[in-house]
Amino acid sequence: MKIFHFSDIHAGSDKHFRKENLLYIIDEINNGDYDLAIFTGDATNEGQRHEYEIAKEMLDKIECPLISIPGNHDARSGGIALFEEYIGPQNGIYEHGDAVVISVNSAVGDSNDGRIGRAKFNRLKKALNDHSEKEIKILAIHHHILPTPMSGRERNVLANAGDVLDLIQKADVDLVVSGHRHYPNVYEVEDTVYINAGTASSVKTRYGDVNSYCTIEINDKIKKVITKRLNGEDTVRKYSRNRKRVFSEFGKKEFRAIQLSNTYFSESNSFLAQHYEEAVKSIRMLDPDLLIHCGGIVKEGIPRDYNIAISELNKLDFPMVFTPAARDINYLGYQLFNQYFGELDQKYNNEKMLFQGLSTPQYDSSVGVVGETERKLLLESLNEAPQEFRSVYLHHNIIPIPRSREKGLLEDAGDLLRELVDAEIDLVLTGTSYHPYATKVGGTVIVNVNSMSSVYQRSRFGNSFNVIDIYEKVIVVSEVNALWGKKRLLGIWERA
Ligand SMILES: [Fe+2]
Ligand SMILES: [Fe+2]
User: Fold this and answer.
1) Å from CA of 111 to ligand 2 middle
2) Considering the entire predicted model, what is its pTM?
3) Is 253-494 CATH 3.40.1280.10?
């Protein structure tokens, strides 16, 4: 099956729209033997009738079957009604031989943010379920689900990106095609390939880049994705299908780390002392090589809370590393963190393993940032590290977390994620949003941990911490209920 994917044409006045580039792309579609073309939104710039007229005139030239969805720009000025009049339905299910394409409108009127509301989410879930037997499952959605690199501040995200990501992964979707950030990018998450086509014909490209589109070839063995830039630069990526999912050979166990966050040590009612006491017993039994605290150590950055933290943590005598969350550095927190825990960016390493901390919070803000300079230094030191296993731990999430509103809380999550995946970092640990989640992006296993002992947590499994067992051949991640010690597997991944 051959698919042509393009996005963000932004038809309208010459100020925004490069008509000649779109005409070139339409020629490419009509001169190729594509089974299907998918357009992932932003047909217009302002959702106006005269723009829809141009968009329709253009899209009507496409000779193969075309599936179109609206973007946030199409929903401006109530333009969504015009989308239906000129382009087509907002949502749909299209069967094409062995394939199904499910398209979902994620645009919210007069907002750049995306959302798949409850009714639509349930319909998407049902559609994926009803078509689970299809050989090829494709989802088309305008807003990006994973943070996009080279697009500046991570924003206009899909509010429920975490739930959507989780649904897509559970439903074994083959391809997710998107647009919106006007920068072409491709990620493989487990067996799902997430494609962002960039913009076909808007003048608003990023970092001096040119307009772009994608071609996708999919058969029973591989998915081949080519990002095509209009300057003739092609990037070819191939992903194998039907990869091994059950592992019987783990090899020797090399390391056990405990990952925890949001302990909230304090005299406040939000610190669950009994959960902490019981978790201490479980952790002692698990006998880890290292304990990694991903931030939210204290409730507030005040001496009283830090004193409680130190006396509570003294109950554990394993090597420990810490990275701060915003609450750890507010008030006197900066000095106290230094005084009690040491450096902001701590690390643990032995001959084979490196765990590098990365401090991301800012004063009095829930928004975290690494920063361009800092990222560069981090990547340099990671690339020079002699250890065969390299891990980075930080507080803020770099992939969306289920059961929480995605807000793009790490400003440069898009760049950081791309850089860590490209550097083939083995493991990234985060500790925010009060819900556990683990998946693999490219060759990088990414694990978020729930709160261990705060009343604020979102998991039906209850407060928990994670156990990360690193074997010669696989990484096994489980969460352990803080109060009862019950263990639940989050995933097993083959080591690169
Ligand atoms: Fe756009
Ligand atoms: Fe958009």
Assistant:
1) 10
2) 0.97
3) no
Distance between Cα 179 and ligand 2 center (Å): 7
What pLDDT score does 257 carry? 98
Q: Label residue 207 left, alpha or beta by phi (over 0 means left) and psi (-120 to 50 means alpha).
A: left
For residue 14, the one-letter residue type is D
Neighbours of 268 (CB within 10 A): 14
Domains 2-240 and 253-494 share a fold: yes
Tell me, in angstroms, the distance from the centre of ligand 1 to residue 136's CA. Answer: 27
Q: Which residues contact 403 (CB under 8 A, 6 or more apart)?
A: 162, 163, 435, 458, 459
Residue written as token pair 């809370």: 305
Question: Which protein residues have a CB closer than 5 Å to ligand 1 (ion)?
Answer: 8, 42
Q: Which residues 6+ apart lie within 8 Å of 221 measured at CB?
A: 240, 241, 242
Q: What percent of the chain has pLDDT over 90?
A: 94
Cα–Cα nearest to 67, from 90, 39, 33 = 39
**Span from the CA of 470 to the centroid of ligand 2 (angstroms):** 40
Encoded tokens for 120? 């639509």
For residue 234 the two structure tokens come to 């092609």
User: How far does residue 112's CA lie from ligand 1's centre (Å)?
Assistant: 10
| Digit-coded pLDDT (tens) for 357-404 | 999 999 988 899 999 999 999 999 999 999 999 999 999 999 999 999
From the CA of 471, how far away is ligand 1's center (Å)? 44
- Distance, CA of 53 to CA of 17 (rounded, Å): 14
Give me the residue spans of the domains in the chain: 2-240, 253-494
Alpha helices by DSSP H, 60-176: 80-86, 118-130, 161-170
Whole-angstrom Cα distance, residue 346 to residue 395?
Answer: 13
The residue written with tokens 């091994």 in the block is 244
Per residue in 133-177, pLDDT (tens digit) is: 999 999 999 999 999 999 888 888 899 999 999 999 999 999 999
Residue 235 three-state SS = strand
Q: What is the spatial distance between Cα 387 and Cα 348, in angstroms, rounded to a whole number?
A: 11
Is CATH 3.90.25.10 correct for 2-240?
no
Is the pLDDT score of 409 beyond 90?
A: no
Q: What is the mean pLDDT of the segment spanning 207-236?
A: 97
State yes or no: pLDDT of 429 exceeds 90.
yes
Name the amino acid, one letter, at 437: Y
DSSP reduced 3-state for 289: coil
Q: Print burial letters for 229-260: b (CB count within 10 Å at least 16), e (below 16).
A: bbeeeeeeeebeeeeeeeeeeeeeebbbbbbb
Ligand nearest to the CA of 142: 2
